[in-house]
Each structure stands twice: as structure tokens, then as C-alpha cells.
Design a protein that fits this description.
Elements lengths: L30 H20 L78 E2 H7 L5 H10 L2 E3 L2 E2 L6 E2 L5 E3 L1 H8 L3 E6 L43 E2 L8 E7 L2 H8 L7 E9 L7 H8 L3 E2 L2 E2 L4 E6 L2 E6 L6 H8 L2 E11 L2 E2 L8 E3 L8
Parallel strand pairs: 8-14
Antiparallel strand pairs: 1-4, 2-3, 2-5, 6-8, 6-16, 7-8, 9-13, 9-14, 10-11, 12-13, 14-15
Helix pairs in contact: 2-3
Length: 373
Amino acid sequence: MATLTLKKPAAPATRRRAPLRGSGVKPRPTLAQAQAERAERAHQRAEAEARPAPRKKAAAPPPAGKPARPPAQRPAAAAPQTPARPTKPPRPALPPARPAGPNTAFGTRPARPAPPPPAAGPAHEPGSLRLAKRMSELGLASRREADEWIARGWVRVDGEVVSELGARVRPGQHITIDKKARTQQAQRVTVLLHKPVGYVSGQAEDGYQPAAVLVTPANHWRDDPSGLRFQREHLRHLAPAGRLDIDSVGLLVLTQDGRIARQLIGEDSTIEKEYLVRVQSTTGERLSAQGLRLLNHGLELDGEALRPARVEWVNDDQLRFVLVEGRKRQIRRMCEAVGLKVTGLKRVRIGRVMLGDLPAGKWRYLGADEHFA
């Protein structure tokens, strides 16, 4: 049996296509070539700009005997004719604007009524005083204490309780105080402090501490004759009743009792304060008799005459001053006025209360049997 063998025809040879025109890739110039080309182009531009512009040839003159031909002129173009616009009739005048009314989009708001005129205060009875002021004048309480007692109903005028602040009384009316007020007042204390140099009497100033910081259990004088024991409540509302400058030492009163404060520093106070003052002359001469008389009476400070004082020599360099007023740095300014300089000042008495043996920096309570007046 014959076997048929099939042969695959040989593939025709593929033709190599010619490259398309323009499809060749142009070699990319190097950096040096690109820079050289830019420089060449810039040089050509510079030469072209530097070259003078060509001159126009002047027109040849006309031959002799022949008139020059005037330059040809083009006829002016006719301006385009636009049709005239019809005039508009004037607008009619608008009616005058009406005043804007209230915004009623969210409902109308009722007009706010005008405030009533201030009511005239009640006419005070001639010669009447505020009850608190009258109580202060009588020495019953300070004005702050009086207002507190009136609000609590502890004050009676002619037997009737008065609890209205600002109530007024006549000078002849009788004022009585409830026992509760007396008990509260009796629990308020007064402290006697021997202030050293370097402490101010009132609030801290210029970095110096107030003298009240010395009122501590550690500084309580162990020989205190009052018999009172220290309690934290005694520091509340404890305020100085009088001044003693930072360079001075001696007796300083701190109290919770408004009556005592008014008694010592009130405008009408007559409580004496005694000082021992060490001085030296600024002129080299001893104080004259006339200067001593001026210290007793005749000087003025800030345009206001001073009250009479008692000033006398204790020894060659020490004076005793007894005053009934206490202006700021009064003794030092009085001494400067007569040629003296104060080198030491110590307060030893206020009214009937003496500094005594109380050491510097220590304090004690004012006893129940002690009174300034």
C-alpha cells in the first residue's frame, strides 16, 4: 500500500520594506552644539540691529521748464450715514416715596412705654440724722456695726424696733441696743503691738510687710495681763487705728471694734499720743527758744495750721512730743521746719494706755479694764 506524504510549502522570503520618507530620527544635538547655535543666532541678531537702515532714494527733480506735478491725493472716503435715532419721550415723574413703616413680617411689637419720672425722695425732717450716724456720734457703734445691727433688728428708737437702713432720727430720741449686739461687740478684740522698724502700719507697700503679720501665737507676750487666749477669729477684720511710719517704733493699735477706731482716728478725736524723739541740728546750733515755741504752736503743714502741741526737752538730744492729731510724717516735718533732723522716733502712749515693758515685735490684748479715754 502506498503512503502519501504531504510537504508544507516553503514560506516565501519576506521582503524588507524601505523606510518611510521622513521617518528617520534626527540625531539630538549635544549641549555644546546647542549653546554654539544659540550664540550664533544671538550674534546674527546683534549684527542686524547694528546695521544702518537703508536710505530712501530722493525723487529726481523735474526737468527744467516743466512744472512739478503735485502729489496725487486720494479722494476722502465718504463718511457712512447713520440714520437718526428717534428721540424718546421724557419719563413721567415718580410719585414721592412714602416713609418706611414698621416691619410687620414677624408681627407687630407694642411700643415700649416711656419710663416714669424718678420719684422724689421723702422730705427729711429738719435737724434729723441717719440712725447709723447718730449711733456713731453717741459712741454706741461704728457706722458699719450700726448698719449691721439695724438690719438684724437689734436697734430700738423710743422703744420701737427700727430695721430699715437709712432710717433717720431726731437728736432727742432715745436709742437702745439689744443684748445680742452687746455680746457680739464684747467678743471683738483690740491688740497692742510694739512695732519694730521695717514694718508699715497698713497694707503692704514697696515690698514691706504690714505690722499685722506679727500678730501670731508665737509673738504673743507671755506676760499679757488680759487673760485672753489667742483665737483665729481674732485676726478677722483686724485693722490699724492710727499710723506709725516705717522708720518709727512703738505702740500701734489694731482693733476689730469700730468704736475704738473712731475714738482714736476720728475727725473729732482728742486722744493724746506721746512720742520720744531723738534729734540733731542741721545748722550746728542748738534749737532756739523761738524754734521751740513754734513746735508747740505756730507751724502749718500743706497750708493748714497745726493744732497746739506740747513739746519739751528730755535731754540734750531728745524731745517729748504730745499731739492730738496724726498727720503723715507730722513730727519729722515739724522738726525740719525748725532746723532739726529726726534720728529716732518712738510712740510710748496713746491716751491712758502705755507701751510699758512690751518688747519690740511682741503684742498683747487690750484688757477689759483698760480704756484710751
